Amino acid sequence: xxxxxxxxxxxxxxxxxxxxxxxxxxxxxxxxxxxxxxxxxxxxxxxxxxxxxxxxxxxxxxxxxxxxxxxxxxxxxxxxxxxxxxxxxxxxxxxxxxxx
Length: 100
Fold this sequence. Notes:
By secondary structure, the protein is mostly helical. It has five helices and no strands.
């Protein structure tokens, strides 16, 4: 999926929450990836985000819907916006676009 700068920022917020904001039982089973592998993806995506802020295009990147779903499930509506900076409705719309 081709991400916009806003999409990438949103996904990075969810990644941050999953990696540092709360504990996920059976992490690898729940998310389909180990915490170490997801942390490496996070580093790579943050480098892409920094380059995008300097005007470089965002390449095609993989997004893990389970990361977003876990963040929604854990935080719930009021806390989701506080901790990610995005509305729950924006997260749900992003998931709909991913499923196309």
